[in-house]
Amino acid sequence: MKKELIIGTLGAALALAPFAAFAQTAAVTGDANVSTNVSTGTTGTGATVTTGAKVKGTVSLTNAIAKGDKEITARITNLNNLSTRIGDMKELSSSEKTSLQATISSEISTLTTLKAKIDADTDVATLKTDLESITKDYRVYMLVLPQGRIAAAVDRVTTIVGQMQNLGTLLSARISAAQAAGKNVSAAQSAYTDMQAKVADANTQATAALTETQNLQPDQGNASTEASNTAALKDAAAKLKAATADLKAARADIKTIEAAVKGTGPKASGTVTASSTASAQ
Question: Residues 273, 16: contact at Cβ < 8 Å?
C-alpha cells in the first residue's frame, strides 16, 4: 500500500466524551418538570403552571393549554431528531435499532394523543391531571432521550473499535516485518498487546452500557424505579467514559507502534475516525 498509516486525530476518540457527560447529566437532572396548581379565583378559572423554572404565574385555561402543547411539541421534536440519528447508526444491530425506534414511535404516538386531549380540555381539574402526566407518564428527558443518546455513543465507540481492530491487523504485519529486518520491536510488541487489550475493553464497556439501559421503564412517580433508572444511566455513562479512556490509550499505543516500525515493511493505510451519528442537544 502506498499511503502511510493514518490514525486520525485525537479528537476522534475524544469526540465520545460529550456523550458520556450528557448521559450522566441527564441521569442526575432528569426531566424538565411540568407541575400544576389549579385554582378558581374571583376573576375566573386559572391555572398556575410551572415548567421547570421558566414559566410561572396564574394563566388562563387557554394559556395553560398552550404551554402544555409547547412542552409536548418540544418532546416530539427531540424524539423525531433522535429517531433520525438512530436510523443513521452503523454498528448497532437491526434489532437494537428497531427496539429503540419502536419505543420512540410509541412515545410520539402517546404524546400526540395527550396533546389532542389537552387541547380539548374544558375542565380545570382534568387539565391539571393531563399537564402533570406530561412528565409523570411520559418521562422523555429522564429516560427515552438518554437511552437513545447512550446508544448513539455506543455506536461511535463500536465504530472506532472496528477501525482500530482493522489497523491492528496491519500493524501486526508491520511489526513482524520490522523484526525480520533486525529491528528491536519489543516496545512495539508491548504497545500492540496493550492496544489489543484496550480496544477489547472499550468494546466490552460499550456493549454493557447499551445492555443495561435498553429495558428501563418510566417510573411514573415511583421513587424506587426512578432511583434504579438513574443508577443505570449513571453506570452506563461511567462505562462510556471508561471506553473513551481505553480508546485514547489505544491511540497512544498505535503511535508508539508506528514510530517503532517506521520505514520497515509495506505501508499500511487506515483511518480512525468517528462518524457524527448524534450530538448532545
Answer: no
